[in-house]
Amino acid sequence: MKVVIVGGGWSGCAAAVCARKGGAEVKLLERTDMILGTGLVGGIMRNNGRYTATEELIAMGGGEIFKIVDENSRHKNINFPGHQHANLYDIGTTPGAVMRYLKEMGINIVFKARVVKTNIKDGSIESIKDSEGNVYNGDVFIDTTGTAGPMNNCSKYGNGCAMCILRCPSFGGRVSLTGLAGIKEYIGKKPNGQIGAMSGSCKLYKESLSPEIVKELDTKGVAIVPIPDELTEDHLDIKACQQYALKEFKKNIILLDTGHAKLMTPFYDIEKLRRIPGFENARYEDPYAGGKGNSMRFFAMAPRDNALKVEGIDNLFCAGEKAGLLVGHTEAIVTGTLAGFNSVKFCNGEKLLEIPKELAIGEAIEYVREQMKTEEGLAKKYTFSGSVLFDKMKSLGLYSTDIAEINNKVEKLGLKDIFSYSKEPDKLKVKLEK
Ligand SMILES: Cc1cc2nc3c(=O)[nH]c(=O)nc-3n(C[C@H](O)[C@H](O)[C@H](O)COP(=O)(O)OP(=O)(O)OC[C@H]3O[C@@H](n4cnc5c(N)ncnc54)[C@H](O)[C@@H]3O)c2cc1C
């Protein structure tokens, strides 16, 4: 069983872990020199309904990555406007911890492997090729290339390349495996009809902020600094993460401590920022041009079913942002796990798993798929942590922070430990329902 995963963001890493647990030989191809993709500059976990989705996946036996993230959290169970019980992972230590875990499991990570070509025969992908001409054969492929960039999209639909963590000039821009396979993809829009959406946060060097702000961040994880009226900026409508499009995020500088200071706005004019007390020396760590813009995302989502199989190609699955207008690490990890699991089922010729709608994860996967078929739905973003999906979760009674209750529900649905495995390499087998 050879599973080839293209894209080493959170969804690709989660897919790799689950496919490897199922006994597959796993290759994870990443075009840059680091794993975690946009997760390299993220950090917010378990806020609002993400808590439920996290615990559902843990109950289903797919919690390894969440365990690493929890172990690498700088702050746990914190609140900030509109958001409760959040954990903030350390963006300095988490990528290394995940990488060590993947390697320990025997996952073959290939860096600087930017996939640019597919070889298709009888409706299936036989092999793919990277820009250096290396060929990768597989029984099944998973597209976890995300939806961010490349530079020409950031220039055309955003404020230009903001020099973000994706580092397109050095490694070449994102290329969609689904697109290379000739499948027409969905394109996300802003509420005003323009294409794409801008990433919703930047990172400031903590060292460039006043000692009072740094102390607040270190002790509480959050710092909220009111913005004088004449210095406010309004970027709420263009944000990819609509869960933070609340008036508090316009009236205040909201910072979260992920090692650096995560500034919860897509960009903020640096001259204006430096006029706010405590920010006189402020400097952007990511993106470098955070005073002017940010990365643009949601340009290419794959048409797929609820088992995350891409429609139109026999042996291609997808996860993360590729699987819909799904914003977030948690969303990427849960869909990645399902795609990895189903890639193994596919190889074994078994029925693919669809997560039932009684769970928040199942509801999200189906809801986003339905929404992507409508113009209105394409103008929204979906996350367990806020906006329309969280509202839906609450109205359906799917939001819970009661771990015992979540476990019982998973158990009753017959999904307890479905993604679990033994760590011994020769016994790497998920318990599969025939
Ligand atoms: C600045 C910023 C801050 C964020 N903060 C948070 C947060 O705090 N909490 C949260 O939950 N979410 C946050 N998000 C959103 C979250 O990071 C994403 O929704 C999620 O992590 C997406 O994961 P992914 O695996 O689908 O895609 P990505 O993270 O985009 O990963 C895709 C990977 O595929 C690689 N790739 C692309 N094309 C190819 C190719 N042809 N060949 C090989 N590799 C390829 C890319 O290099 C990349 O590593 C943030 C996003 C941004 C941009």
Structure in words:
This protein has a five-stranded parallel beta sheet, with helices on one face. The protein starts with a strand and ends in a 22-residue tail after the last helix. The model is unreliable at 422-434 (pLDDT under 50). With 434 residues, it is of the alpha+beta class. The chain folds into two domains: 2-75 and 91-194 and 297-427, FAD/NAD(P)-binding domain (3-Layer(bba) Sandwich), CATH 3.50.50.60; 200-286, no CATH class. Helices cover 29% and strands 18% of the residues. Bound molecules: flavin-adenine dinucleotide. Flavin-adenine dinucleotide is lined by residues 6-12, 29-32, 37-39, 41-44, 113-115, 144-146, 148, 166, 174-175, 199, 201, 295, 320-322, 327-330, 332.
